[in-house]
Amino acid sequence: MLYWLIELSNTVPFLGFLKGLLNVFRYITFRTGGAMVTGALFVFLFGPWIIDHLRLRQGKGQPIRTDGPQSHLIAKKGTPTMGGLMILSGLVVATLLWANPINPYVWIVLAVTLGFGFVGFYDDYLKVTKQSHSGFAGKARLLIEGIIALAACYALVRLGREASSTSLAIPFLKDVVIHFGWFFVIFGAFVIVGAGNAVNLTDGLDGLAIVPVMIAAASFGLIAYLTGNAVFSDYLQINYVAGTGELAVLCGALLGAGLGFLWFNAPPASIFMGDTGSLALGGMLGATAVAVKHEIVLAVIGGLFVLEAISVIVQVASFKLTGKRVFRMAPLHHHFEQKGWTEPQIVIRFWIISVMLALAGLSTLKLR
What we know:
Layout: H1 4-11, H2 19-22, H3 28-58, H4 70-75, H5 84-98, H6 104-130, H7 138-159, H8 162-165, E1 167-169, E2 177-179, H9 184-202, H10 210-227, H11 230-236, H12 247-265, H13 274-291, H14 295-301, H15 303-322, H16 332-338, H17 343-363
Antiparallel strand pairs: 1-2
């Protein structure tokens, strides 16, 4: 909404003297910083009220899996979930305040984020009310996520230039793309759904998921800014997608809201993100990657999420085929818990891995 101050200064006579000052709202970098600060302040200010409200409503809090690490049954019992509502609230407020309201990419990515968030919220609601770790039926959940992702990818393809909007760019190689045609809609939907569920699987320890999500958001905020700038994208020889620079504001809002949430989610967590947050944030990262045509780079920057998802797939496949487990427990972070690593050791080491993967992903912007 603040973006409209530029237009007001041009049309309202008595605001004319502020035109120079209000001109800063034209800059994506300025509005990204404003969104980050707004998202963080919103969660800081309203976080305690949200936590108290959720704790009162949920009673026993999030049910802890009996087949998970036994230490969780004691240390994490009674902690409320649905903390994703805090992040999404700060994200939405900051985005509406600082983003260009007529930019379609903002609304598409925001729609995916809130759509996935609603699916996660319903899953958390069922778990809390039933006091069971079995929530929304898996197939039904994936179906709804798939429909949301397909609709978003269809809209993204219609927005972009036909040739580039339905192709997949290969990192490190300039002018090398794979043309999917309209099959790209299905591929893009797979990326979005996969990202949402990969982040969901990673969210198992205090602070484990939110920091890698923020690292990925910061990385894709930079990528979105460069991709949406004709000069920078030409210099870096990456696909120019007009309008996607505005997604940097959305990523800034997520980064700020995530920082606010981490204040309450740091060990020992006062609240869990829940599927409400993990599905929404993963879906947002996936949708952003598809919008800026950096789907493969998402697998690098979000490599930690990929590893967590693969560990579950390998574990399930191995047990069904051979009756044996590859890992002591899946997802991967539980494997290291069973090996004797403490929770802070796992979380901080996984953060370090996320930073290294982000740097590797960002290096693809120049090494072509």
